[in-house]
Description:
Layout: H1 10-23, H2 57-64, H3 73-77, H4 89-101, H5 105-113, H6 116-120, H7 141-144, E1 147-148, H8 160-166, E2 182-183, E3 189-191, E4 202-204, H9 211-215, E5 220-227, E6 233-235, E7 250-254, H10 256-261, E8 270-271, E9 283-284, H11 287-291, E10 294-298, E11 305-310, H12 319-328, H13 337-353, E12 355-362, E13 365-372, E14 387-395, E15 401-405, E16 408-409, E17 414-415, E18 422-423, E19 425-429, H14 431-437, E20 442-444, E21 452-456, H15 466-471, E22 487-488, E23 491-493, E24 500-508, H16 512-521, H17 527-537, E25 544-552, H18 569-579, H19 601-611
Parallel strand pairs: 3-4
Antiparallel strand pairs: 1-2, 5-6, 5-7, 8-9, 10-11, 12-13, 13-22, 13-23, 14-15, 14-18, 14-24, 16-17, 19-20, 19-21, 24-25
Helix pairs in contact: 4-5, 4-17, 12-13, 12-17, 16-17, 18-19
Amino acid sequence: MNALFRTPNVRQWIVVLTIVGLVASAAVAAIIELTLNDFKLPGTKMAAVGPMAITSSSNCAWCHGDFDPEGDHTASWEGSLMGLGGHDPLFWAQMTTANQDVANAGYFCMKCHVPMTWVTGNALPPDGSALTSLDREGVACHFCHSMVDPIYREGTSPPEDQAILAGLEGVPPQYYANAMFVLDPTGTRRAARTNLEPLHEVIHSPFHKTGNFCGTCHEVGNVAVSRRPDGSYRYNAIDAPTPDTNPATQFPLERTYTEWRLSAFAAGGVDMGGRFGGTRGPVVSSCQDCHMPGIVGANTFFTNEHPDLAHHTFAGASAQMLDVIAAYTANDPSINQASIARGRARAVDMLRSAVTLSASQSLRTLTVRVVNESGHKLPTGHIEGRRVWVNVRLLAADGSLVYEYGHYDDAEAHLDESSTVVYEMLVGLSADAAQITGLPAGVTGRMALADTIEKDNRIPPRGFTNAIYEAEGAPVVGWTYADGQHWDEPRFVIPAGAVEAEVRVFYQQTPRHYIEMLRDNNTTNTWGQVLHQLWEQTGKGAPIEMAMVRLALGPTCSADVNCDGQENGLDLVAIEAAVGGDFADFCQEDADFNGDGAANGFDVEAVSEVLGGAACP
């Protein structure tokens, strides 16, 4: 077998785990005892750049903040998940369970969520107990603006990058993924804009305008789980770096960058008619076009306005988590609650821009079309918890509810999944992984241990092709989308008595089963309980409405079952034949004319009654 896909046998893992369990009896051992070597990746090494070189965001705020709460860089950043990464209870609860499942996982997680730990050296210990206030700034201003394109591009990259890349330990990163970032060791700030009058040194960096920049953290593969030639995934050997740093060969944990990179947006841009992009115009291409839209504003309080300033909102879909973070930090004077509120509003706006919804009727069938307007799958991002679904309420003439698909019980925080379509990605454990871990095979919430994709019916973006997405580790699983299809069309049966349909699409990031799993699986600290209490306090992750349409309904049946344009005795002959299995002269969807779930004599009787002037059954 190609060494690229080498896999230890089950006996090797069991022996290793047994030995580890014996020598670590004084502490609670993780299910899989990976070492730091398993997480070794190219790029700037931890603590290779001193904290004096890359400083606190509070320093940036002296010039870039406190002059426009709606548009200045500090006010918009500090109300985003970027600026709140170290204050996110969901992240801490997730990292706790990840560390319990896989030793040292937190060392890997913190590189993206609180990357200043890579500067300070506080990504160890992996439980985050060494973090300082500087680390808790999340994805800090100076950190991002010190990043270097790891792939040098002659004529485009700053010439200073050549020496920086040559000075790295080992080969520079070849992929934009898994926090394989390269930092300028001098901390010299970099910016995409050229017409600046800064008070500090600035290097012009085209890299900061590209989706490649964002891919550094928005493309995550499990570096300990590799894809084999047959397409399946298996655990790597313990205490050895990943055999391939290409994230496409690793088990997918987040493929947002790949989803975008393979879309029509990255291939030249899409005219979205002003839905995204702000003042930059209707054609959007990069991640920044949508998540950092252009506004009229100034970089600093003492410089002129630009017509296309990049708004540092980083708005995504995490409105529900911003609620939790606001509650968690309510008494923290270092956190700007007004900025969080504005960040939440922008996240809701982004969600509502990501979908176009329509509905149509064909007799008893209501067809809903959900169009993905975003540049990646819908939903995208971190795979755990995030889901989108269709809700259909069918109403009688007096406004009362006749039937509902996808009902959500707010009090119980429970979705009736069986009656509707839920767009989500679910991962699981193979039989091999189950034997190694001692956990049940099949769908799992243990993301750090997963090695199978059980479901991925998330709606693709424009430009989607099955073969290419599958080859890059972002396949559709358990659903069917044609090449180029960036919408889905679920169908619902219209019951008798319904005269109007209300159709909605909802988004949820923190469903009950996910939050309870993080609480119940936590055995080492209180983060799971803290998260659960905050979740209850902030409305139990109440779904956010992305779109809604109403449709007046016409007749749900026609006695012209042979579709010859007339309702007469020939239709009785056609329904009788169809009930018997002969559909030659029958053109409606099925012979269950009265919608009771069976094709039989009652359907013949119903057609006869409608021919006689009765209402649809």
